[in-house]
């Protein structure tokens, strides 16, 4: 499963490695495209914390993750939280 592959990648390379962050973003994107917004939200929140720490708030990848999180929240009808986050 994707969880197994991701766990191995995190263990081998670490959560802050660029390939681990990229893999997590890709998995979250696929989940969102499958309308699995709740699962995508969990991964997006997790990777956003790492990106904020490693890349900073203004990095394009961090901004993209924030946008994707808003999309996942809207997909779950969490409109208020999504609008507050997307401002």
What class would the helix/strand composition place it in? mainly alpha
* N→C terminal distance: 35 Å
Number of strands: 0
Order of helices and strands: HHHHH
Radius of gyration: 13 Å
Q: Any low-confidence stretches, pLDDT <50, length ≥5?
A: none
**Count of alpha and pi helical runs:** 5
Spatial shape: flat
Give an overview in words:
The protein has 87 residues and is mainly α. It has helices at 2-13, 18-33, 37-54, 60-75, 79-85. Helix 1 runs antiparallel to helix 2, helix 3 runs antiparallel to helix 4 (60-75) and helix 4 (60-75) packs antiparallel against helix 5 (79-85). It is flat and about 40 Å long.
Describe the SSE topology.
Blueprint: H1 2-13, H2 18-33, H3 37-54, H4 60-75, H5 79-85
Helix pairs in contact: 1-2, 2-3, 3-4, 4-5
TL;DR of this structure?
This protein has 5 helices and no strands. It has helices spanning 2-13, 18-33, 37-54, 60-75, 79-85.
Features:
flat; single chain; mainly alpha; 5 helices; 87 residues
């Amino acid at each position: 499963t994707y969880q197994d592959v991701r766990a191995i990648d995190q263990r081998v390379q670490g959560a802050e490695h660029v390939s681990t962050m990229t893999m997590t973003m890709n998995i979250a994107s696929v989940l969102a495209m499958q309308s699995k917004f709740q699962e995508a939200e969990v991964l997006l929140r997790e990777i956003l914390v790492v990106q904020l720490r490693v890349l900073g708030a203004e990095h394009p990848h961090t901004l993209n993750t924030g946008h994707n999180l808003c999309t996942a929240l809207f997909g779950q009808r969490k409109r208020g939280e999504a609008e507050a986050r997307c401002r």
